[in-house]
Amino acid sequence: MELRHLKTFKAVVDAGGFRKAAEHLGYAQSTITSHIQLLEEELESPLFDRLGKKTILTETGRRFLPYAIQFLKLYEKAKEIREDDECPTGTLTIAAPESLTVYRLPPVIHEYKQRYPQVEMVLKPSPNREALSRLRTGETDLVFLLESEWKDPDLVIKKLVDEPMVLITPPDHRFREISTSTLPALVEETFLYTEQGCSYRMLFEDYLQKNGIAPKTSVESWSVEAIKQCVMCGLGISLLPRIAVQSEIEEGKLAGIPWKEPHSVATVMAYHKDKWLSPALKAFLQMVNQHAIRW
């Protein structure tokens, strides 16, 4: 049952005949006849009695008419459901690791909510692997990751800013630099790692492995904040993005040794290539790009 057939049926009723309906719709009269015949075949009953020059609804036609009108009204209502580019609405779901949800995204989200209060924001702190999984299943609209640059044929990926890494130690720690002379001493340190699959954990582990360093002890934590507190208490050392430790270093609570290795990470955002970019999502992407210029 096609919408155009319903429109033709309603036009015949309103016009009182096939010829006038054809003139109104701009169809040939044979097209009007064909549309009505197809409806009658689906309903297995005639819709009109053709009595001379008069076209009168049958009992089936009278009973069918309210449904046809309702369908056509629903269609017109459906056409009205469109989001205004000047006033995005709906829900925007974002996934990102802890470092970005705490240190990069809050100013963006704050400005966005002030400008578009009618958009519901859902922020899901997620490790990189989990965030990507959420994106591929359609659970989230957009993800932010701390990653080395990579390509994925199913995703639109944009690098926003390089994120310098810092080896953090307690303020009174003996390390002041990472060099060939200090590398052997790393074996004696307790390494505080983020969760498995974290890009900069893998970066750190790869560096240690290439230099033949196998730490005697290590501790894993899903929380960057917990790692910082542990380092402050002298429980070990860790490699974290500078954005996550900048204030503690400036306040003297931590010491930071710049990570000078060529391989590093960046803040990137990604969405599925087949994702419909709603006005809400378009506005958020634009705002992120504006903020990223200042990062």
From TrEMBL:
Transmembrane segments: none annotated. Gene3D superfamilies: 3.40.190.290, Winged helix-like DNA-binding domain superfamily/Winged helix DNA-binding domain (1.10.10.10). The keyword Iron does not apply. Pfam families: HTH_1, LysR_substrate. SUPFAM superfamilies: Periplasmic binding protein-like II (SSF53850), Winged helix' DNA-binding domain (SSF46785). Keywords: DNA-binding, Transcription, Transcription regulation. PROSITE patterns: HTH_LYSR (PS50931). GO terms for molecular function: DNA-binding transcription factor activity; transcription cis-regulatory region binding. Residues 1-58 form the HTH lysR-type domain. It comes from the Bacteria. Belongs to the LysR transcriptional regulatory family. This is DNA-binding transcriptional LysR family regulator. It comes from Melghirimyces profundicolus.
